[in-house]
Structure formats: C-alpha cells, structure tokens
Amino acid sequence: MSLDTIATGSALPPLDDARRQIEICNACRYCEGYCSVFPAMMRGKVFSDADMLHLANLCHNCRGCYYSCQYTPPHEFALNLPAALAEVRQASWEQYAVPQVFARAFHEKGVPIAFALVGAVALFFAALAALKPESGAGFYAYLAHSTMVAVFVPAFLLPLLAIAAGLRRYWRDSGGGAVRLQHVLGAIGSAARLRNLDGGQGQGCNFERADRFSDRRRLFHQATMYGFLLCFASTSVATVMHYLLGMEAPYPFFSLPKLLGLAGGLLLVVGCAGLAWLKTKADPSLGDRRVWGGEMAFVLLLGFVGASGLALYAATGTGLVGALLAIHLGAVMTFFLLMPYSKMVHGFFRLAALVSEEGRQPESRAQVGARKKSLRS
C-alpha cells in the first residue's frame, strides 16, 4: 500500500497535495524560523516521495506556519501545511504497521477499542489472580512474579520488534543515511528540549490558541514524556534489584523504584490531562481529522496507566488491591499491545527523522577544516 492510496477526503492524495504546498512554501520562505521542516525544505527545489516522508515526520504540528501564512484559505493556493503533513505522517505510520488494518482501525475508533481491550485484559488478570500463589508479598500475593514475567515479556518485546521492522522500512524509504553518534546525540538533545515546539523563537507554538503563542503544549508534552521515562526507569531499576542484587519486591516508599514510579505516575497524569484538554481546544482542521479519536484515545490510555498505578499504590494494604491490580495490569498490557498501532509510534518515527536530519545538516566551516586536517594527517 502506498501513501497515496489511503483516502483522506482531500482532492489530491496526501503526498501530491503536501508536495504542492511545500513547493509554494519553498518559494515564499517566510516561515524559515519556525521548526526543523523549513531549513530541511530549503535544501532542495524538487521534492521526491522520500523527501516528503522525511519532512512530514519532522513536523510537530505546532501550527505556527499556518497562522503566519498569507496563502491560507480563502486564498486560491489554500495552504494548510500542518494538515497536509499530518496526513502524510499518519499514512506513513499506518503503512509501516504490521498488520496495517489494526493501525487504521485504532486511529479511527481508538477510544472504544482501547478501553474495551483494557476491560478484557483486566478480566484476564482477575481470573489469573483467582489462582493465588502459595506465597508472596505485596502484588505477588495476588499474582506470581513468574506469571507476570511470562505474560509481560512477550507483550512488551513483540510490539517493539514490530515497531523496529517499521522503522527499518521508514529509514530506507525516507532516504536515511549512515548514522553517527553525534547525529543521535543531537537528535536526543532536540527531542529532550522539544525544540520544535518553541515556535523558533522560544515563544511556544500555536496549537491551541490560534495566532497567539503558548508554551502549554510543550510543557504538558514534556511532563508526559519524562513521566513515561521515569516509570520505565522505575521498572528497569526494580528488575536490576530483583535479578542482580537479590532484592525482591515489595519495596519501601524511600526506594528508587517507588520514588521513580510515583514521580513518573504523577507527571503522566498531569501531562496527559493537559494534552487532552489542549486537544479539545485546538482546531481539528489543522491536523488529520480522521484520526482525532485515535490520538485522544492514546493520550487517555497513557494517562489512565499512570492514574491506575497511583490508585493501586494508594490502596496498598486494603481489599481493593486485587481489583486495582487487575485494572492497572490490563491498562499497561493494552498500552504495550497497541504501541505499533497507536500514536506511541510518533516518538520513534520523529526521533528517527531528527537523527536523519542531523545527518543531512551541511558541515560548518570548523567541521570541514577539522575533517580536512584529519585526512591530511
């Protein structure tokens, strides 16, 4: 399936329309300071499918270019570059998902799919918990550690392998080249700061306040991203403590897994609630309307993972632990299983686009001089 075969409701297929708009933008160049899309665009005059794929995944949908553009509707050019690139970007994520039909179904009907799956998986864990282990403390009094490992390891690794296969194809199709350490470090630095959401001048973006700048999306996005990373760090530290140090759960409050997990859960809840709120205020016509529900479902699911984890911890020592454990594990497993098909893939694809962009940057004079000096020596 090519990107142009996915129906979007526009007069032109997504690649053709996005290419038309990029060519007009490249002739104007008024928005050169906004994000990574514009300096990348200015390197060329003719844009191949690979170029368009790269530009679309560089775009963070900050929408600043739309509100600065003199060629938006009712002008005859009718430019809406944020929506055009969003359609190409979304189509690429669906094309590289395996199987593709799952990604398309989730993005169009994400909320009922996500929470029906949470309920089904929670019932599965509730049934497992009915077979209580003979021994165990904390959560392991309800579900054996070996059972959790046997269920979650494949549920985590198999979706990651599916994402890796899609990324490999994306890298090839978007013209990605050789990767160097400095490219990766530069891309990680950009992603860590969410540089492409600062409006180019550090004022923020125009996602939810039209022609007025706001830094709220960047802050909520950072809370979500770092909350997720802290939760992942909590699980990783607990794994090291369990298997390498012989320190088995449950852990006390002032332990690294607990502190990382609580901080991560709180940031996830705050960040996801903020992003969901901003999404209700943003103009849906400046994104891919078709997938609004799937994007909202992803944010709500990720926030529910954090909220259910906090609720589970708060219920420690009460009769609610069994039910809340099943609900939390159901949410976590649903999140893992849906990773290749939900907007979670945007983190992987955008980081890959940023790495690729770092590799495409023209060398500075100092870099050229250093390279020539090393060749002479």
Automatic annotation (TrEMBL):
Keywords carried by this UniProt record: Membrane, Transmembrane, Transmembrane helix
Transmembrane stretches, start-end: 111-131, 143-167, 226-247, 259-278, 290-314, 320-341
Stored InterPro entries: Citrate_utilization_prot_B, NarG-like_sf
Protein name: Tricarballylate utilization 4Fe-4S protein TcuB
